[in-house]
Amino acid sequence: MGFLCPPTRIRFAGEWSPANTNGVRIPFAVRGPRVLALGLLLASGVFAQSAGSGGTIDGTVVDPTGAVVPGAVATLNNMVTGYTQGVRTDATGMFHFRNVPQNQYHLQVSASGFQQAEQDVPVRTTVPIALKITLQLAGSTTSVTVEAENADLLETVPSAHTDVDRSVFSSLPITSASNGLSDAITLSSPGVAADSNGLFHPLGDHAQSSLYLDGQPITDQQSKQFSTQIPLNAIQSMELITSTPDAQYGDKTSLVANAVTRSGLGAARPFGSFEANYGSFGSYGEDFAIGGGRPKFGYFLAANASRSGRFLDSPEFRPLHDIGNSQTIFNRLDYQPGGRDAMHLNLFLARNWFQTPNTYDQQAAGQDQRQMSRTVSIAPGYVRTFHSSMVLTWNPYARTDFINYDPSRNPFADQPVTIFSRRSLKNYGSRADVSIVRNHHNIKTGVQISRTHLNETFAFGVTDPQFVDPEAQPGLVPYDLTRGGSRLNFHANANVDQFAWYAQDSLTFGNFTLTGGLRFDWYSGIARDTSVQPRVGGAYHITATGTVLRAGYSHTFETPYNENLILASSTGAGGLAVNALGAFAATPLRPGRRNQYNAGFEQAFLKKFLISSDYFWKYTTNAYDFAALLNSPIVFPISWRKSKIDGVSARVTLTNYHGLTAYTAFGHSRARYFGPSNGGLIFDEPLETESVFRIDHDQAFQQTTFVRYQAPFQTQPWAAFTWRYDSGMVAGAVETLDDALGLTAAQQAAIGFFCGNQFASLGHPITSCASGNYGAALIDIPAEGTANSDHNPPRIAPRNLFDLGVGANNLFRGERYKVKLSVTATNLTGKVALYNFLSTFNGTHFISPRAVKVEIGLEF
Asked: Using an 8 Å Cβ cutoff, are 750 and 734 in contact?
């Protein structure tokens, strides 16, 4: 069992320093109901999946004679992420680590009168890892300081990924209310471009990301426009996978966030925290967490609430009509009646309410649109360990999102259209697999079965008399309220049934790891399709230089977005006929297929630095995006004939060096899409004459640098600095001078449009420009005659954003209870900048102005 029992390296003991982890002192609608029923039967009776994605380490500590050593301290840590867990051996010399995020770890075991033993432990499976640690008698004089070696920093796996523990993301500057998960991903993972309202573009894609929460797959949109995210204080660790996804991952794989939640199982005593904060824009909130348990039972609860006067990213730099609030409750219960069985239950309840922010023009008209969303999620889990190398587990789940979007009471206060929307997205199913670790093999095979029930109600009416051209858009005339028309009313529901089978194996031969997998997907929604997807990858560890080389290929099945999917695909009688909204065409969205190639490396040096870099190339047929419905806040999925996306991502990490930690993550991506648009409501004629263009996910360069220092004083003061640079995503609305001159005064003022010495303002638009000296402060407009949708598109102007946080984690030097105080300033320089402008896909949104937040809390 070479994988289960890695070689042990024994070194002499160094000094211990006090830290507290669990009370231990440690060192630093469609056809397919029969198929659905069959799949559920298979999932519950034949296959099984981990109740969570965390691993288990069981160990026995003995002395040179073989006698057990009770009371020994075992400490597990990861130098890159900062994850640390410490336990003591019981009367039988046993120790147990539960819910361990899958990663590379360094184990240290010590006891009075013995030398300290150390061992590298890779955790890459839910199969329990069994260890036997022998402690040698202490020498009389020899003692050296224990330091990490380069091998401790490396992972010999084919996939490029970033591991982030709560010790890091709890210090990141969270700029968006109730969107901490998105902010943590954007600021931690290389190659991720920030977008508005918690959306992000992973490696040139639009929101093609999945969240696996203790094994529960969540592939629907996690922006607060669509749903409510799990709070950060409920998460222990995340593995952010950006290349060569295993066969177990499907649907949306440009970025897979494999998250492990916090647990109280086996806690030596209750632990928790309470934090209250107040800040700019009338923002305030509280975060509460508590956990505890016994060896057989554990509980963890996180309850948060927040309110902000800038809840969404607004279409004007100064937020107008932008108040919102959010409440979330997450509860995890664990029960382990014996050594072979374990169960857990995740419960999540959330609510968002917010005003839709206005432009100056909409504010003047009295527009008052609002949205309320609710999320309910239930995810139990069961795991059965048959023997030391085989685990059978099962993870059913049910998750529902309810979205209510209300127009203004006076429909003519909404400009240029008034919209009413009620929709729900109910996703329930089961994900299950069996894991086997034997000799060189780490095998996993399983099934996933799910049904997503979509229910959409939609009403629409034109309120701007200038919006409809009766000759060019005759289909909109019946719904033009300014011409005596009536609202269009639409209601429909549908089921999306999915079944997947997957099998994968990871073979380890010395310093070489080879992974291979196969996945089969059956998709039956508004459209139907199947796909067989091979995945393969390899990694080699060059021990002499501390280098890991990796490469991989994956064929993936990209399923359509579920949000407003019926609306986007509706045709014919009773639906949104081709002319009803003035659309050129309406076509059901079909799943896409992608071929993805990756090559990269990891390099460790000086025992403190780790460099990870990856090149990616993705070719997709039926490439997805979102589009705005007739310049409204409602968006729906759309697809294009194909896309070609390539680029480079990299991250440089400095592990803890006398309290200093730092990383810089950066990326470059080219996102080229090819017309015509071939799915969803199509409002422009297919792009036959313009066959290729850069979509708004395209960004030449972005980087995040994060530096944190924590002083070794009893008050634990700290300071953190973040620098984010974005070169600017594509902004296709203003390609020429004529486009800029056609904007309203408020729109010209928003981008800082100028002609010579004349600058546009709210009451004074620029209607003509004879000077060759024109441009915009917040948008790079191509010079006259040079605009090209592929090689020289207009872009959002580059921006540098700086954040600063200072605080103390133990103001009054308490042993059991610690008072914390911090002050965080985001956008420190008050930079005025845009995420996007009049985007066909997302509208207009400014980044947040300078904001200050003060937080005080108690941790125990």
From this structure: no
What is the spatial distance between Cα 495 and Cα 30, in angstroms, rounded to a whole number? 5
Whole-number pLDDT of residue 15 = 30
- d(C-alpha 634, C-alpha 842), whole Å: 9
Closest-CA residue to 365 (of 424, 409, 401): 409
Got the DSSP string for 287-346?
EEEEEEEETTEEEEEEEEEEEES--S--SSSS--S--EEEEEEEEEEEE--SSSEEEEEE
Nearest 5°: CA angle at 258, between 254 and 262? 155
Average pLDDT, the chain: 86
Query: What is the C-alpha separation between 676 and 469, in angstroms, rounded?
Result: 24
Q: Where are the beta strands (DSSP E) in 336-440?
A: 341-355, 370-387, 390-406, 417-438
Residue 40 predicted with pLDDT over 80: no
* CA distances for 351 relative to 304, 323, 329, 403, angstroms: 11, 14, 9, 10
Q: Residue 389 class from Cβ within 10 Å (0-12 exposed, 13-18 middle, 19+ buried)?
A: buried
With H, G, I as helix, E, B as strand and everything else as coil, classify residue 5.
coil
pLDDT tens for 772-788 read 899 999 999 999 889 99
Distance, CA of 252 to CA of 839 (rounded, Å) = 23
- The continuous run of DSSP H or E covering 661 comes out as strand 660-682
Mark residue 82 as left, alpha or beta (left: phi above 0; alpha: psi -120 to 50; beta: remaining). Answer: left
| % of the chain at pLDDT higher than 70 | 89
The token pair that represents 100 in the structure block? 């361990």
859 - beta bridge partners? 273, 818
User: What CA–CA distance (Å, rounded) separates 505 from 443?
Assistant: 4
CA 40 to CA 449: how far, in whole Å? Answer: 6
Mean pLDDT of 381-392: 89
The answer to whether residues 184 and 169 touch, using CB atoms and an 8 Å cutoff, is: yes
Q: 173 falls in which pLDDT band (50, 70, 90)? A: confident
Pairing, β 209-213 against β 255-261: parallel
Tokens of 158: 């084919």
| Mean pLDDT, residues 546-564 | 94
Cα–Cα distances (Å) from 170 to 220, 463, 672, 828, in that order, read 25, 46, 36, 19
* Tokens describing residue 794: 């207009």
Could you give the C-alpha distances from 199 to 135, 227, 230, 752, in angstroms and in order?
51, 12, 15, 25
Dihedral sign computed on CA atoms, order 836, 841, 842, 844: positive
Determine phi and psi for 351, rounding to 5 degrees. -145, 135
pTM of the complete model: 0.88
Separation of alpha carbons 586 and 43, rounded Å: 37
User: Do 308 and 282 touch, CB atoms closer than 8 A?
Assistant: yes
Is the pLDDT higher at 631 or at 91?
91
Q: 216 is written with which tokens?
A: 């529960």
Q: How many CA atoms lie within 13 A of 692 on its CB side?
A: 10
Neighbouring residues of 723: CB distance < 8 A, sequence distance ≥ 6: 703, 704, 705, 800, 801, 802
Strands (E), 111-178: 117-123, 129-134, 161-165
Q: What is the pLDDT of residues 201-234, one digit of tens each?
A: 999 998 889 999 998 999 988 777 788 889 999 9
Span 819-847, pLDDT tens digits: 999 999 999 999 999 999 988 777 899 99
| C-alpha span between 628 and 130 (Å, rounded) | 54
Tokens of 767: 């209607």
Helix intervals (H) in 120-171: 166-169
Whether the per-residue pLDDT at 39 is higher than 60: the answer is no
The yes-or-no verdict on residue 685 having pLDDT over 60 is no
Helices (H), 410-519: none
Nearest to 406 by CA among 392, 394, 390, 423: 423
Report yes or no: 25 and 71 within 8 Å, Cβ to Cβ.
no
